[in-house]
Specification:
Length: about 150
């Protein structure tokens, strides 16, 4: 599962992509529109500015904007920056590989082979979709409809 930090980052970047070319967006506006705690959002946006994906401007008229066009920022980029890896198990990570504890030797582990395929297919999808691509909303599941 994606961490809360990753989900907040993606939603904040989607909001900024929606406002691409319209100037700075204030943190409070992003936090309110995306239902993100402002203190947590401050940390996230500061980190992303240090990574070079955002431009931040202080002051009364300040705010945040994407440093790159939305087409140049993929969802894979955002997940890797906030989560570190797209792998579901440590031994399937391409960049942050670790041996699993209490497992078979990697050369004998079919679970690892399966998870490598899942990781590679996930990376392929997330790297193909940028913030500029429209994301179609899907219908709610029956259990979601009952709770809303």
């Amino acid at each position: 599962m994606l961490s809360q930090k990753t989900r907040y980052t993606i939603r904040a970047f989607q909001h900024l992509a929606d406002h691409w070319g319209k100037g700075q967006v204030q943190l409070a506006d992003i936090a309110e529109a995306q239902n993100i705690p402002p203190k947590f959002l401050t940390v996230i946006l500061s980190e992303m500015a240090r990574e070079g994906l955002l431009i931040s401007q202080r002051g009364r008229d300040g705010g945040y904007q994407l440093a790159l066009p939305p087409i140049d920022i993929s969802y894979g980029d955002l997940v890797r920056l906030t989560r570190g890896s797209l792998a579901l198990v440590p031994c399937a990570a391409r960049n942050a590989h670790e041996h699993c504890k209490n497992c078979l030797p990697e050369a004998e582990c079919r679970l690892r082979s399966l998870m490598l395929r899942v990781r590679d297919d996930t990376a392929s999808i997330l790297d193909r979709i940028s913030l500029a691509d429209p994301i179609k909303l899907e219908p709610l599941f029956e259990t979601e409809e009952a709770t809303q």
